[in-house]
Amino acid sequence: MSTIQAFVLAGGRGEQLGVITKHRSMAAVPFGGRYRIIDFTLSNCVNSRVHSVYVAAQYAPRSLQEHLGLGRPWDLDRRDGGVCILLPYTGRTDSFWYRGTADALYRNLDMLMARDSEMTLVLSGDQVYRMNYGEMIRQHRRHRSRVTIAVKSVPEADVGRFGMVGVEGTRVTRFEEKPATTDLRLASLGIYLFETEYLMQRLREVVPAGRYDLVLDMLIPAVREGEVTAHIFEGFWEDVGELDTYYNTNRSLLPAASSYIMDRRRPVYTQSEERPPAKFGATASVHDSIIANGCRIFGHVERSILFPGVLVGEGSVVRDSILFSEASVYRHARVVRSILDKRVVVGDGVVLGHDEPAEASLGRLADSEVVVHTREGLTVVGKFTRIPAGFDCRRPVMLDSHLSEDAVRAGLGILSGVSA
Amino acid sequence: MSDADVFILVGGQGSRLSVLAEHRAKPAVPFAGKYRIIDFTLTNCVYSRLFKIYMLTQYRPRSLVEHVGVGKPWDLDRKWGGIAFLHPHQNFEGSSWYGGTADALVQNLDVLQRSQAEEALILSGDHVYKMNYEWLLRAHREQGREVTLCVVEVPWEETRHYGIVVTDDDGTVIGFEEKPIQAKSNLASMGVYVFSRPALVRILQELQQEHRNLDFGQHVIPAMQARGAVTTYRYGGYWLDIGSVHSYHTASMDLLGSEPRLNLFDGQWHVLTTEHNRPPTCVESSARVRDSMLTDGCQIAGEVLGSILGPGVVVEEGARVEQSVLMDDCVVRRGALVTRCILDKRVKVGPKAQLGVAGDGRANLEQPEVLRYGITVVGKDAKIPAHQVVGTNCLVDMLAGADDFTQRHLPDGSALRTQRLHHPVR
């Protein structure tokens, strides 16, 4: 088992999350009251005793770099192996950004070779799941495959989101990338195990020929050649790249839903900030919620997730919402179906958010082509934005980050309605 | 500017903390949910930019050593300075336990002698306070005396609980009164001393012949005071010596008010500790949590009122916890009631058990001086069987199990001991 390395693709921006991914990559998006999305993949690695981990980053990598540090929370600050962030770099002849997933691997070929690993796990940094890669590795060895991919059955309605896989025995015989309709029901989870030798050989053929995508240019041809085996995984797995799935996957952690995250034998590790225990005041009432250290609660909190250091003032109501670190809701405010990013301040008496699910367009950021959609009627507020006392907005909206009270009052930075 | 070595006295037995400190040194007793008492002193040190720290251990040091480790949470795992444990040891001159607080230093005199520091700061590991020692050291240098002793004003009616310091107008110490009935002053000694290092080496060498049990408070400071070498530094903030079960409980409850005197939410002075990886706390639909502090990893479906819960505590539906302190991973099953109790780590309270039920209020039979204010204390890993009733002022031994509970109702003042331990304490 010691000759396995992991290569985590964490370069994606996750534009569907709108202002949440304006200043951070998808992998660094906060999740579950305490974690960042990449924590799940990193914890899976160390819980599966894979201690050699490369993380390829590109978009807004600073918060990811700061979060990973030397890898200490995952015991990845080690002499042998450890975690290493790989950013695009300039070379003598090839000064490019990563042009695709295969390119990100190819540009780090020397790193892939350096540790003489027999196998390379190629993983994604923007999925939430708990998996012991050991079982997949054992199956890979048993079948002497060149490539093993993890697959899971999905409902028919979801086939358009995934690469769909057809299997005979354990051999993958068909692969359709995000088909409109298909008879296939097994989805590829973006978890690939390669013979390192084979991976390098294929990268050397494909990338110099101007093909940069791991799935289209390497995996699908390998399926055609009969080199790919499927490993069936039926545990919890979710790709949280869209706003509604992000919201609902968070909510699946609420006590009334499930609490798979509370499995003490296979913990999820993360970088923690130093905070006192959460304080519940004499006027607090909290139901069906997740509360991290350092919160101070004097109001009413229901079906919500509060990250470290959140303040909910007296007389305020927070319902069906996710509040990132140090968001503050002052007194007598009402926050419903909202995602408040770090250090957002909600002034006294503010009414924010739509009461029930509704289909809405939340507009797009100035530098992005992607219009953010929600069917959950969500309101999203970018980090550091301050919402002035008395502000009242009950329709789903997206507010930009770093807005002053005056800007919000003047209606600037409210992105909804700005169409592409 | 801070060029002082720090010596933290962490060897004492906290006998007045009952079962909480029978199996661990007092500084290692958990406090305020996620901390240990020692965290406050270590945090003070590093925020005061003092990074060379010696811990003088003796009584049951293992949980302390495990907690402090290499000092990572305090950034004390460093190349220059850092943390070192000075435990009683054998050498070619013989071997002996530390006879007193100053004797502990006498036995490590070489450390003190070879140090390059100007001052030695002597601290106690079992106090809860936030203090910037830089100011103290600056005052010591300005005053130019050999010893500066920290004092704090206490209410006159409480002076009989403290070591009282009498000073003249310019702050020079002119006398001491140990727990006086009629005090001449209301300045209590905090057990925090700055010595000019050469002066400390000299006095220890002088006194070590006379006293085998050399103690700072009893011998060293009075000897220095007799020479007029001791001055005072007045500390104005919150300071508490968690000496007894009663003060432990009171200090814990004091954290819950709307404006507690000890502010743990001070962003400039977050207390640092060894964090364990826990998911955030789950508060379920049926829960009612008021006026309490909850650490990460709790699962609450019942009622928690006016209480402090450490990491990983479970309170099931229909259970109620009030005015209590529950340490790591305690479990309170359905329908159980816990009132005015301190439960050490991993205590399991069975379904419909009741702890802290008021009866005649009798003081504890085994520890009448310690357990007489209505608090019941349960040692770690004890299992309280279903439907068991336990009164106030009770003591339940560490590891006590169902077969130890021979009575369905333990009356007030009971002391339930078990033979399960390898090393019984009594």
What does this structure look like?
The complex is a heterodimer of chains A (420) and B (426). Chain A is α/β, with parallel strands linked by helices and 420 residues long. Chain A has 2 domains: 4-251, Spore Coat Polysaccharide Biosynthesis Protein SpsA, Chain A, CATH 3.90.550; 273-409, UDP N-Acetylglucosamine Acyltransferase, domain 1 (3 Solenoid). Chain A is built from 9 helices and 33 strands. In chain A, the strands form 7 sheets. In chain A, strands 1, 4, 5, 6, 8, 9, 10, 11 and 12 form a 9-stranded mixed β-sheet that branches. Chain A has a 6-stranded parallel β-sheet with strand order 14-17-20-23-26-31. In chain A, strand 2 (30-31) and strand 3 (35-36) form a beta hairpin. The N and C termini of chain A lie far apart (49 Å). Chain B is α/β, with parallel strands linked by helices. The model of chain B has no long low-confidence stretch (mean pLDDT 92). In chain B, strands 5-4-1-8-13-10-14 form a 7-stranded mixed β-sheet. Chain B has a 7-stranded parallel β-sheet with strand order 17-20-23-26-29-32-34, with no helix packed on it. Chain B has a 7-stranded parallel β-sheet with strand order 18-21-24-27-30-33-35. The longest helix of chain B has 11 residues, at 37-47. In chain B, 17% of the residues lie in helices and 28% in strands. Chain B is globular, with a radius of gyration of 22 Å. Chain B has 2 domains: 4-243, Spore Coat Polysaccharide Biosynthesis Protein SpsA, Chain A (Alpha-Beta Complex); 282-416, 3 Solenoid (UDP N-Acetylglucosamine Acyltransferase, domain 1). The interface between A and B is large, with 41 and 37 residues. Strand 16 (289-291) of chain A pairs antiparallel with strand 16 (281-283) of chain B, so a sheet runs across the interface.
